[in-house]
Design a protein that fits this description.
The complex is a heterodimer of chains A (164) and B (302).
Chain A: E1 2-7, E2 10-15, H1 22-29, E3 48-51, E4 54-57, E5 70-72, H2 86-93, H3 103-116, H4 122-128, H5 140-155, H6 160-163
Parallel strand pairs in A: 1-5
Antiparallel strand pairs in A: 1-2, 3-4, 3-5
Chain B: E1 7-10, H1 14-23, E2 27-30, H2 36-41, E3 49-52, E4 62-67, E5 70-76, H3 81-86, H4 88-93, H5 95-100, H6 107-110, H7 115-121, H8 127-134, E6 138-143, E7 146-151, H9 152-155, E8 156-158, E9 161-162, E10 169-176, E11 181-190, E12 197-207, E13 213-221, E14 228-229, H10 231-237, H11 244-255, H12 268-290
Classes of the chains: A alpha+beta (164), B alpha+beta (302).
The complex binds FE2/S2 (inorganic) cluster (2 copies).
Chain lengths: 164, 302
């Protein structure tokens, strides 16, 4: 069947089988490999993308269901080619990743959190990434990265005298 | 893990969805899909046709409704769990539901998962089913162009089994709103926060001016194949002072002859014992809450 998919601001017309998950469509048809296929049945969180602004698991919906909605993947969060978003930056700085398998999904979950809550508590950060499994870091630096990114994003466009 | 092939169609309204359902034995409705899609990926479900009801706007709402003089909060079947989680009206009027919802899956599954989907799926551990049974909610479904009401207690009949007739589409659930000095409590135990509960318990009470319990409901989920009410304990405790010892004895007695589930995760004996502990805690929380004291809530969360 023919579907229209709005991904990172671009509308694509794609021919898919109804059983194609959103995850497979992003990876195999649009060559956006940032959403990772971990378990493909909703338990690891590696496939997290933003669906109309909310973090969702792209393996738990079919591409055909996404027509009419806006999807953002990790490829869509950078301000420009070769640049990183403040959250990506913070992950690098605090060593919030090791093998990187869980990282794009962690960052998408963090984006969804910070979009609605610029000053989350530690508990809120933990809750926001509780559905995302990381087998490397032990999570501590991931939580640290999100807290650091939140702090920086709050400081944006504020005079230095107020942030220091 | 890929689903077997199927046809996909978006229904414009509920009657169209019902007509399509009736026309094809292998067809299934899809709402949030947070249970159905993994089942399909594992090929435990192989619908020939998926009828998508996500875009039916008339099925997504939270509003106040009065039915036969009973105030209620009506929630449309495809209302997302996260929408209820964030809704101030639902939190104020049905605080027990608000307490339970953060325990359902994770933020990313609550963003897709729906209220009606969870009810219709009828997992023994489903928090929404437990709250619906505990508060005597009323469910509505549509079939053959007619809307029918059914009490939550008659709806849940077994593990993943409901009394919803073939070809019907669940449309709404109505939670009664209690007036007066209300308190609520909810607890569950699971391997990790937000995993399936091994046992869950919910309680809501109304306190009189004398601090005695005027009205009480207690529900237990995941211990048996569908959520139950501890009716004998409710009868015993109503009108009393909710002394912790009396509460514990009453819930224990009410749980003695339940047919507790027994599986790899928890034995029947464990479930029965933990159900008594959690039910007593839920009542204690509800009692404190009704008196305006701060309640920690689910001890298992984080
Ligand atoms: S790949 Fe989607 S949750 Fe694991
Ligand atoms: S960095 Fe390896 S899984 Fe998270």
């Amino acid at each position: 069947m023919r579907i229209e998919l709005n991904v990172n601001g671009t509308v694509h017309e794609i021919e898919v089988e109804p059983r194609t998950t959103l995850l497979d469509c992003l990876r195999d048809r649009l060559d956006l490999k940032g959403a990772h296929a971990g378990c493909e049945h909703g338990v690891c969180g590696a496939c997290t993308v933003l669906f109309d602004g909310a973090a969702v698991r792209s393996c738990l919906m079919f591409a055909a269901q996404a027509t009419g909605s806006a999807i953002t993947t990790i490829e869509g969060v950078t301000p420009g080619p070769g640049e990183l978003s403040p959250i990506q930056d913070a992950f690098c700085e605090t060593h919030g990743l090791q093998c990187g398998y869980c990282t794009p999904a962690m960052i998408m979950a963090a984006h969804a959190l910070l979009a609605g809550n610029p000053a989350p508590t530690r508990e809120e950060i933990v809750e926001a990434i509780s559905g995302n499994i990381c087998r490397c870091t032990g999570y501590a630096q991931i939580v640290e990265a999100i807290a650091l990114a939140a702090e920086r994003m709050r400081g944006v466009n504020r005079p230095r005298s107020l942030t220091e | 893990m890929k689903a077997a092939p199927f046809e996909y169609a978006r229904a414009a309204d509920v009657d169209e969805a019902c007509a399509w359902l009736a026309a094809d034995d292998g067809a299934r409705l899809i709402a949030g899909g947070q249970t159905l899609v993994p089942m399909m990926a594992m090929r435990l479900a192989r619908p020939t046709r998926l009828i998508d009801i996500n875009r039916i706007a008339a099925l997504s709402y939270i509003r106040q409704e009065t039915h036969q003089d009973q105030d209620g909060i009506a929630i449309g079947a495809t209302t997302r769990q996260c929408a209820v989680e964030r809704d101030a009206l639902a939190a104020a009027k049905v605080p027990l539901l608000a307490r339970a919802i953060p325990n359902i899956g994770h933020a990313a599954t609550r963003a897709r998962g729906t209220i009606g989907g969870s009810l219709a799926n009828a997992d023994p551990a489903a928090e929404i089913s437990l709250i619906a049974v505990t508060l005597d909610a009323t469910l509505s479904y549509r079939a053959g162009g007619k809307t029918t009401d059914i009490p939550a207690r008659g709806f849940h009949v077994g593990a993943m089994v409901t009394s919803l007739p073939e070809g019907a589409c669940l449309t709404a659930v109505r939670f009664p709103v209690w007036q007066g000095r209300i308190g609520t409590g909810f607890h569950e135990v699971n391997a990790r926060s937000s995993d399936f509960a091994f046992v869950s318990a919910a309680a809501q009470i109304e306190l009189g001016a004398d601090n005695k319990c005027k009205r009480i409901v207690i529900g237990v989920g995941a211990a048996t194949d569908h959520p139950i009410r501890l009716e004998s304990a409710e009868r015993q405790l109503a009108g009393g002072a909710l002394d912790p010892k009396a509460v514990r004895a009453a819930v224990e007695a009410a749980l003695t002859d339940i047919e507790a589930l027994d599986d790899l995760h928890a034995t029947a004996a464990y479930r029965r014992r933990v159900a008594a502990v959690l039910a007593a805690r839920a009542v204690a929380d509800a009692f404190a809450d009704a008196q305006g004291k701060k309640v920690q809530g689910n001890a298992n969360a984080h």
